[in-house]
Amino acid sequence: EVQLLESGGGLIQPGGSLRLSCEASGFAFSSYAMNWVRQAPGKGLEWVSGLSATGFGTFYADSVKGRFTISRDNSKNTLYLQMKTLSAEDTALYYCAKATSGYDSRAFDIWGQGTMVSVSS
Amino acid sequence: QSALTQPASVSGSPGQSITISCTGTSSDVGAYDYVSWYQQHPGKAPKVMIYDVSDRPSGVSNRFSGSKSGNTASLTISGLQAEDEADYYCGSYRGGNTGVVFGGGTKLTVL
Asked: Is some CB atom of chain A closer than 8 A to the CB atom of B102?
């Protein structure tokens, strides 16, 4: 079964750090670009970051550039998102999403169920 | 990175057809044939319905179709069914290091 399983979310104080993980199964993980997309409570989708299949192409939304780092371990079929200097505006459900291509993020055909990140004091 | 523009809501009766528009710019929708559409039911993860403007993934009903003209893309759902009631988001590739931009979402109500 094709599946993405996110973990690592939780309640964190403003200014804190958190690392999200996304474990993939059922497809050739190392052949596809992977992404993080978030959705604040009651709001729409916001693309956060993308990473090429090889891990050499990284892309970030302006809202997280310099604070978030995306990475992957193809030997573990796992995608990561290291988040630093978190603020209330980062509160959202974070989805892991598989791209349809190996390099860029043209579309997302597999989504996880998401992991919730809440930033509050 | 401004979001693409979608109507906040659309509605239709069972059996009817509806169209949801998605307006971008010459830097995103108008520049690439990489527009996608996602369906999201409450409390669920998004599901791709259309990618690359008009391609339908395996398993998605042929009642769903996509098109593009200039800077505006459209999703048409024909033969509306109660299960189609959901939020729909468009997304467009923007090239380079700018990734993807989504629309604000459209709530479809089946009357």
From this structure: yes
